[in-house]
Amino acid sequence: MPEMLHFERWDVLVVGGGAAGIGAAVAAARNGARVLLVDAGPMVGGELVSGIPVDGCLSSRGEWVVGGVCRDLFDECDRLGGYIGPINDYRSLHVVAVDPEIMKIAVLNVLQQAGVVLRLYSYADQVVMDGPRVRGVVVVNKGRRTLVEAGTVIDASGDGDVAVAAGVPFEKGDAAQGELQPVTLMFRMVGVDGERLLRFVRDNPENAGLGEYEGIGLSRAECAAALYRQGLPKVFLVSDGPVMRDAMARGALHRSSMMGITPTSMQRREVSVNTTRVGHLDATDTERLSQALPDLVKQVWECAGFLKSSVPGFEDAVFSGLAPRIGIRETRRILCDVVLGDDDVAEARKREDGIAKGAHEIDVHLAGTGHMRRPIRDGGSYDIPYGMLLARGVPNLLVVGRCMSASRVAHSSARVMGTCLAMGQAAGTAAAIVASANDAISDLRQVHVGRLRETLRAQGAVLEGTR
Ligand SMILES: Cc1cc2nc3c(=O)[nH]c(=O)nc-3n(C[C@H](O)[C@H](O)[C@H](O)COP(=O)(O)OP(=O)(O)OC[C@H]3O[C@@H](n4cnc5c(N)ncnc54)[C@H](O)[C@@H]3O)c2cc1C
Question: Which of 199, 323, 349, 384 is deepest in the core (most CB within 10 A)?
């Protein structure tokens, strides 16, 4: 590893190029800041490019609750032919499906158009403090070690690496048991006959999660028929339905609460599959995480065989790819000035200092076939307060995305990508306000929340007017 330490100075350093970091970097750059986005991987996008649908953009009622940078990404996917759009799963959610291969390009285009400077293959390692402030982050790559100094640092690393290095307190998983949600490797299959799959669900609705949000107002069979008419192969096979249950009983399938099938390309007749799982694993333990990969790949392969042999529509389907990385649902939750609580989410709480909205149901995956899911009141949305981004005790550090400040239950809702993009956009905008203040703002807490909200609204964010 290179020994000499180089120095750089930026207005804003964003660590992590997933949904939250992209929202933050684009917003900060569009609002005039000089922005460096650092990612440890070879590609930007994080879980946005794994084949997972983007949740949390619409509430269970079907109202859009996220706009701004998220909308711009969707528009760019659309322009490039990779936007499938919102889908009602007739279970409880409206999700937005995109082609992950096109999303890779869309993310780069949107970052470039905003003027964000990207540094890949670069790991944010240590933090250098100046009293309570983060002076800079030591970023390491093959070529050099650099102390990247920045007026504001945004931790969008998913695991809160920067905040932890800066000494900010955190929680991890379930406080009593130390339990964490399982990790999953997503995969995709092409050549799927979507009509046949949907017909199977229509005629055998007991195999699928359907009609769970009361507001749908349809019976299970009616939901299955509506899903068929919608014509998009978005299906949740459930573990207590005969097809999955029997396969698990005869050992032909790993144990999982569900199998989430989502269209990723209509042209390729491709779907992604969210089902594999390894539990009881702390994903910040890199050795254990690495050891989980062969197990996950084995599950993928078995599951692809199960789909072909047992699920109508997959007879002629062909395995087409693995996600670029193991998907991590939960590690550290960094404690900020405000911690989003269970009731804030469940009761769809609105707030005057809201800078983004969440709308995904409470959704804690448990080991094996366990799954804790609860709807948000009236299928509505809740507000993310500005204080939730302000790292405790540090004047110039914001925390967004999966490592957000929330209770475990609240986190299970707000961790989805629509919400991460929205809170990222808010963080980037706040950081740009600080940068434009020419040293008049020494603490992110001095940012006028009214002004922040005004700027966000003007740039397409949804802050009010929804249930
Ligand atoms: C299997 C699975 C299924 C899911 N299903 C859905 C779903 O259906 N819909 C939905 O919306 N959400 C879903 N989620 C949740 C959602 O995908 C994530 O919570 C969300 O994408 C997190 O975004 P993020 O930007 O915080 O982190 P990530 O997307 O994980 O991005 C973090 C980035 O930071 C980089 N990084 C990490 N540490 C460092 C470091 N020290 N230095 C430099 N770079 C670093 C990583 O390389 C990565 O690119 C799912 C998650 C999983 C795992």
Answer: 384
